[in-house]
Amino acid sequence: MGVGKGTTARAFAKKYGVYNIDTDDLIESKENKEVKKIFAKKGEAYFRQCEQQTADWIEKCVKGTLISCGGGFYKVGNIDKLGTVVLLEASFEWIHKRLKTAKNAKAKLAKRPLFSKEKEAKRLYNEREKAYLKVADVIVNVENKSLDEVIAEIARKCKV
Ligand SMILES: Nc1ncnc2c1ncn2[C@@H]1O[C@H](COP(=O)(O)OP(=O)(O)O)[C@@H](O)[C@H]1O
Ligand SMILES: O=C(O)C1=C[C@@H](OP(=O)(O)O)[C@@H](O)[C@H](O)C1
């Protein structure tokens, strides 16, 4: 949540001339609702079902595409069949500070329902840390690096 998956994927796609898609965007367009509204109206369990459906579609239909996703997407049952998983790593404090001090911080936090309570977000971060490492094929620490440095490191580690 907020580590920069979408931003990094867009910059990577532009630099390396590949297409990128984002699972939250796919879900929002299929449901015709923003993620925060899906959470509010239908609940988290429903959103997770949407993520699984998206993962099934990706497995069946998507090749040669850069995919960014939500922070809970790693839970889908077929993550290992979707391609190379790149984990963008940063401490909770660093991510939180960047979101909190951004120009439109309020909107950035409101967009992420699971980030609305700091204590709960931190608990989630701690809970997920090990699981992320388990599913990751490539790990890139993003703290205090420029976007160019991050995408160059991803390209090198993924042999693009
Ligand atoms: N490399 C970066 N440098 C500066 N700001 C960034 C960078 N990556 C992301 N951000 C900012 O951090 C916020 C979260 O990024 P985003 O790509 O939406 O994260 P995620 O997709 O992981 O939730 C955005 O507001 C974005 O502008
Ligand atoms: O971590 C999570 O469970 C979620 C992260 C969000 O995406 P970002 O990681 O882009 O904030 C979004 O998919 C949804 O709010 C749930």
UniProtKB/TrEMBL annotation:
Belongs to the shikimate kinase family. Substrate binds at residues 24, 48, 71, 128. ATP binds at residues 2-7, 112. It comes from Sulfurovum lithotrophicum. GO terms for biological process: amino acid biosynthetic process; aromatic amino acid family biosynthetic process; chorismate biosynthetic process. PANTHER family: SHIKIMATE KINASE, SHIKIMATE KINASE 1, CHLOROPLASTIC. This is Shikimate kinase. GO terms for molecular function: ATP binding; magnesium ion binding; shikimate kinase activity. Catalyzes the specific phosphorylation of the 3-hydroxyl group of shikimic acid using ATP as a cosubstrate. Monomer. It is found in: Cytoplasm. It catalyses: shikimate + ATP = 3-phosphoshikimate + ADP + H(+). Binds 1 Mg(2+) ion per subunit. Its cofactor is Mg(2+). Pathway: Metabolic intermediate biosynthesis; chorismate biosynthesis; chorismate from D-erythrose 4-phosphate and phosphoenolpyruvate: step 5/7. It comes from the Bacteria. Its EC number is 2.7.1.71. Pfam families: SKI. GO terms for cellular component: cytosol. Keywords: Amino-acid biosynthesis, Aromatic amino acid biosynthesis, ATP-binding, Cytoplasm, Kinase, Magnesium, Metal-binding, Nucleotide-binding, Transferase. Its main location: cytoplasm.
